[in-house]
Amino acid sequence: MKNKLVRKTLTVAIAGAIAVMTMVGCGSKEEQAQPQDAIVVSEDVQGEDTQIDEAETPKADTASEEEDYTENIDDEIQAVQDTLVYMGGLKTADDAEKSIDIAMFRNDQGDIIYIYEEDGSLDYGIYTTEDATTEDGREYAKITGSDKTYGYYFNEDLTTGIIVDTTGKVFEAVELDETAAREYVAKTIGG
What are the residues whose beta carbons fall under 8 Å from the beta carbon of 140, sequence distance 6 or more? Predict the structure, then answer.
């Protein structure tokens, strides 16, 4: 008799445990289904697909970052431009064998900054100069740049002169206007 009572008690306990587990399991499934149903209802209410294209999100951030960078670089360029006084510049004529421009600026510390561009290659900095003479006897200011040597000389009119390229060849030169020279300043900062 005791065995029958123990069996009945055990059977009731196991059945109760199974019933509780079933309810807990069902409850979990219903709870998991509700958020999915909410998403479907949300899509139906809006009448459109609410899926977010993740590829578009970074583009908006990237565009914003590019705008910030452009604004910052423009501000930086302008700040530098404001500290420079244009001292003069020369360029080879349009029909010359080489395209060479040289511009000189004085910064707010009194240093002369040289910008030299030869066929797309740009060199700039605060360089030393020394007096030199061309093979045909013309004097010029020889500039020792970052890794090359070149030079210039202004005629008395201050709008013409000569440019000596990195190989020592002399070219007749005309005035490089300030606007073109300041574009080189922007290139040295903003690329």
Answer: 131, 132, 133, 134, 151, 152, 153, 162, 164
Residue 104, number of CB atoms within 10 A of its CB: 23
State both tokens at 29.
Answer: 């499934």
Q: How many CA atoms lie within 13 A of 96 on its CB side?
A: 20
Condensed to tens digits (0 to 9), the pLDDT of residues 156-171 reads 999 999 999 999 999 9
Contacts of 86 (CB under 8 A, 6+ apart): 103, 104, 105, 178, 181, 182
Q: Is the pTM of this model over 0.85?
A: no
Look up residue 18 and give its two tokens: 């199974």
Instruction: Give the model's pLDDT for residue 189.
Output: 87
> Strand, coil or helix: what is 90?
strand
Q: Measure Cα distances from 41 to 48, 53, 65 in Å.
A: 11, 20, 36
